[in-house]
Amino acid sequence: MISCYVFAESGHPGYISDVKKEKHLKVVEFVLPPKVEDTSVNLNKLIFTEDFSKDMINRYHRRFGYTEVQINFTTPNRFEEFTSFDGTRVTIEEDVRRKRKFAEYMLRKLTEYHVDHYLKSNKKTKKLYDIKETISNTQVGLVGGFKLRAKYSFSGKTIKLKLKNPYGIWNELIIDLDPVETVSDDETEVQEPDSVNYIAGLGFPIFWGVDMKNYYNLNKEDITTVFVKPFTNTFSMSLTNIYSFDKFNEENQIILGVDWRY
Questions:
Q1: 16 near 9, Cβ under 8 Å?
Q2: Which of 49, 78, 130, 180 could pair with 195 as two cysteines, CB 3.0-4.6 Å apart?
Q3: What is the pLDDT of residues 143-168, one digit of tens each?
Q4: Residue 77 has what DSSP assignment?
Q5: What pTM does this model have?
Q6: How far is Cα 133 from Cα 129, in angstroms, rounded to an integer?
Q7: Do 225 and 212 contact (CB within 8 A), yes or no?
Q8: Closest CA to 203 of 174, 171, 238
Q9: What are 67-89's pLDDT values in tens digits?
């Protein structure tokens, strides 16, 4: 509440020389309305939650490159064939189909994520969610503070194993049960049966705030070592080294990159 006092006295504003005149004092009150609460809904944050976005980024990096510079380095132009991230020689059209396949997986994962959220938040369906979580998640305690966690993704057909340890060492083993994609002339996708790929990851901070992560891909027979030095939230530098153990199809590369987001 704000009060406004109006005086006709001269000399000293705010004071009166005769108390009898106080009865003639005019007081005007202004009542400020309460602050209106923002009831708008951010659909982007509601649909693409932090956990979902993190999972999509990890999957995209495993598919197309572990750093932004590596992804841009392997991006083809529209006049030539190129060697994709998984070591396969493909055309631009085939690369577009592969990215469309990733988009289809993203849609399946998004549907699964929000169906899980509905099942979990509804009392009538929470038991179904608990059964699904029991089937897709396994946890085994080990000695010395170690704990083995396994999670199966129904939408991605992958099994992720992590060993929780007291030393803060990042590690994971991705078992991809559906890794092979071949595209025929009639644009129908043919997948080899009983094909499984393994991607093992191991990483930890080393010095000067540099994070090191290693990824070994069994199908490609190569190991990718990534050094990342973040300076700010929008600026970082990276060094990516790819060493191939396949002597018939070597794809050894060293990529130095700068990532600046604005």
A1: yes
A2: 180
A3: 888 999 999 988 888 899 999 998 88
A4: P
A5: 0.66
A6: 6
A7: yes
A8: 171
A9: 877 777 666 655 555 555 555 55
